[in-house]
Amino acid sequence: MIDAQGYAALDPTTPLAPFSFQRRALGERDVQIEILYCGVCHSDLHTARNEWNNTLYPSVPGHEIVGRVVAVGSAVSGFKVGDIAGVGCLVDSCRNCPSCGEGLEQYCENGFIGTYNGSAFGGSENTLGGYSDTIVVDEKYVLRISHTDNLAAVAPLLCAGITTYSPLRQWKVGPGQKVGVVGLGGLGHMAVKIANAMGAKVVLFTTSPDKKDDALRLGASEVVISKNRAEMASHANSFDFILNTVAAPHDLDAFVNLLKRDATMTLVGAPASPHPSPSVFGLMFKRRRIAGSLIGGIAETQEMLDFCAEHSIVADIEMIRMDEINQAYERMLKSDVKYRFVIDMATLKSA
């Protein structure tokens, strides 16, 4: 076994605190990674506080991991000691179902194994995530990082990046298309950057006028205040695709009406309570669609990382110390971050 240090939630109500535990011994196909940076996702907070009523304690969150390979198993061929590598939201899947066979491990029919808060196949082990100094992962679920600098800002690509890249890729966003992005948070700011790099004309929808300058800086060509009915009406029936990143219940009809015939709005935000039911007529009369999307599989995540490296795309981040994680959670609840917290794991030892 491999000794590890991290920060964990021991129950839903107490702050995260230092935690010692053990990783599995290195298997022949395993890669051990010294974690350098770990992004802070809102899912971490939901899990730590058991807001989805499925948390296994103790819980070590973190699934936006960038680090350095420090050991490899005897059968590992894709990584060597010293490589910079990443781990995203999943660390295993059944490998036998049709989805796994198609490289869509995120839709594994038997349920993928999360980087944290997941039970390993064949046992009841609780997976423990990236708020820690080291992690051991099967080579098949480790990702190559080809960015050469600003590695801390690469970490959020492992969740926020792939969550937005996957639907943009699935719905074939590209040059000449008009694409809407709803919301400018951790997901939305990545969607703007990626859709712009794909060649689309990007329109950002927000309820906050003070986000306009940031949206334009990130790559949007226009910003629409979604509470302004006149601004919204001026874009009726004009979008090829809309990616909705907002994780709070809101009126979907307002955005459905902006889609062209046969166009799609895809939801990637997960609100705690359902959206108001959309009107069927807005869908029927233009054959529009509302869809959903999760993260991406391993192959698509690697494709996203390579795309972002080629286009010099990273997240906009605020670096924090490990012992600042509880304050960071409180700030996340107030949307007081532009646009992703990333933990500098070099601070873990002193914390």
CATH fold type of the largest domain: Quinone Oxidoreductase, Chain A, domain 1
Q: Report the sheet with the most strands, covering strand number, pairing sense and barrel closure.
A: 7 strands, mixed
How many DSSP H or I helices?
A: 11
Strand content: 25-35%
Give the distance, in angstroms, between the N- and C-terminal Cα atoms. 23 Å
Q: What is the strand tally? A: 17
Task: Provide a compact summary of the structure.
This protein is an alpha/beta fold and 351 residues long. It has helices at 42-48, 98-101, 151-154, 160-170, 186-197, 212-218, 229-233, 253-256, 280-284, 298-310, 325-333, and strands spanning 2-8, 17-23, 30-40, 65-72, 84-87, 90-92, 113-114, 134-138, 143-144, 178-182, 201-206, 222-225, 239-244, 259-267, 289-292, 317-320, 340-344.
Question: What key attributes describe this structure?
Answer:
351 residues; alpha/beta; Quinone Oxidoreductase, Chain A, domain 1; Rossmann fold; 7-stranded mixed sheet; 11 helices; 26% strand
Secondary-structure blueprint of this entry?
Layout: E1 2-8, E2 17-23, E3 30-40, H1 42-48, E4 65-72, E5 84-87, E6 90-92, H2 98-101, E7 113-114, E8 134-138, E9 143-144, H3 151-154, H4 160-170, E10 178-182, H5 186-197, E11 201-206, H6 212-218, E12 222-225, H7 229-233, E13 239-244, H8 253-256, E14 259-267, H9 280-284, E15 289-292, H10 298-310, E16 317-320, H11 325-333, E17 340-344
Parallel strand pairs: 10-11, 10-13, 11-12, 13-14, 14-15, 16-17
Antiparallel strand pairs: 1-2, 3-4, 3-8, 3-17, 4-5, 5-9, 6-7
Helix pairs in contact: 4-5, 4-10
